[in-house]
Amino acid sequence: MNIKSTLAALIFGLMLPMFGLAQSSNLGNWLIYIGNKKINSKWNIHHEVQHRNYNAIGDLEQLLLRTGLGYNIKDNANILLGYGYILSENYLNDLDEDKVAIGEHRIFQQFISKQKIGSVALSHRYRFEQRFVGEDFRMRFRYFLGINIPLDKKNGSNKFYLSLYNEIFLNDMNRVFDRNRLYAGLGLKVNDQIKVELGYMNQFLDMSNRDQINIFTFANF
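Request: output the structure for the sequence above.
Response:
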């Protein structure tokens, strides 16, 4: 079995328990745009918009706006200082249709490193967040492991790929574990600047699970 088949089998094997746990959770939808503007060979500007819905569309869960200034330490390593604004609309309880809106200002620092094993691309992201939620101040650490596996390399097009990732969130408070996100999707490389992905994500929280259908658009220019 080659490295691509081994990695895919491993990740999907890890995801099977999550699929089972998530059967009783609601299916939501996340529309995500992630862009990077290259200033020069060293500096870049990150910008991001996420519209998260409780259901297919039209029931806002979160609106997330994020931006940051990044610097390439070397070709496969980038550090970034960023800011995010997050508007959350939370239901008061399971039986109530009323919502409460909460605004969050977030400062974050991150380090991204990339590597390749044959044709398989791996990405590691370490992010430290300082979160101002209402009158509360919180801190959180996140680790993201992404795997990108080309699916049609034999044909020479490299247009389609399998995208897999896992991200864990850890708090600085008494309840250290915050959540874990596990994702698998199919991607299309439109050209050298634009990629789109459609995938499934399970979000495992302390006491519950959530399922999302995620639609990504990536732009680099």
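The mean pLDDT is 88.
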